[in-house]
Specification:
With 238 residues, this protein is an alpha/beta fold. The protein has a single domain, classed as TIM Barrel (Alpha-Beta Barrel). Helix content is 38%, strand content 13%. The chain has 9 helices and 9 strands. The structure holds zinc ion (ZN). This is Polysaccharide deacetylase family protein.
């Protein structure tokens, strides 16, 4: 069975460069509408602060059959936190997010930066799965178990999906079960914003069009669209 996991990191617009939330207001509803129309499920890693600020939008995530995961409380980097700060951040985020979804088991750290010795704090908070590692960065990790946590890497970086689909689709299909990630703000036109070129190129309609092409192309090839916890249940770990 071929499968893909679409994940969405739900946060402010391109943090820490901006503090606006156009992605939450304009991008996130577009993504949810697209997934509903295509009948597919995804995993949304949401920060505690965005869940507090946009409760109606976050309610839609579990209501429409998606997985709600945790993306930290404020999108602060865990590799820059002391142990106690990391613990408090996870606790605060968990408290807010569990108001929307009692079964909160998946986590992704902001900037895909999560110290290995902090995995025990995820365990303490009841998380089972972590997607804070990137298969496209050295040492190119694969899925594995560390302590009690199953770590499932992201396959390719989000800006890659804003290149022409003819470029990224063949590469995506080379991976047996890719995990892709996008952000709500990528589906809002960011071309005039003071952010890095790789963050703003082809944002807005172009990005949404690419995601539609990706979904329809993979559906035509009978891919299954699985949430992170669904695929973790299917994979075998040594
Ligand atoms: Zn993020």
């Amino acid at each position: 069975m071929k499968n893909i996991t679409i994940t969405i990191d739900v946060e402010e617009d391109c943090p820490p460069m901006l503090t606006s939330t156009r992605g939450m207001e304009e991008g996130l509803p577009k993504l949810l509408d697209l997934f509903k129309k295509e009948g597919i499920k995804a995993t949304f890693f949401v920060t505690g602060t965005m869940a507090k600020q946009y409760p109606n939008m976050i309610h839609r995530i579990p209501l429409e059959g998606h997985e709600l995961g945790c993306h930290g409380y404020t999108h602060a980097r865990f590799d820059r936190m002391k142990e106690e700060e990391a613990r408090i951040d996870l606790k605060q985020a968990g408290k807010v997010l569990r108001q929307f979804e009692k079964r909160l088991v998946s986590f992704r750290a902001p900037n895909l930066q999560f110290p290995r010795n902090y995995l025990q704090f995820l365990e303490e908070e009841g998380f089972l799965y972590d997607s804070s590692i990137a298969a496209y960065k050295p040492p190119f990790p694969r899925s594995r178990v560390e302590g009690k946590i199953i770590r499932i890497p992201a396959t390719i970086t989000s800006s890659f999906l804003r290149l022409p689909p003819a470029l990224f689709l063949p590469l995506l299909k080379r991976s047996k079960a890719p995990v892709i990630f996008v952000h709500p703000w990528e589906f809002v036109d960011m071309s005039d914003m003071p952010i890095r070129l790789d963050c703003k190129f082809n944002t807005g309609e172009k990005a949404l069009g690419n995601l539609k092409v990706l979904i329809r192309d993979l559906k035509a090839e009978n891919y299954h669209f699985l949430t992170l916890q669904e695929r973790a249940n299917l994979e075998k770990y040594k």
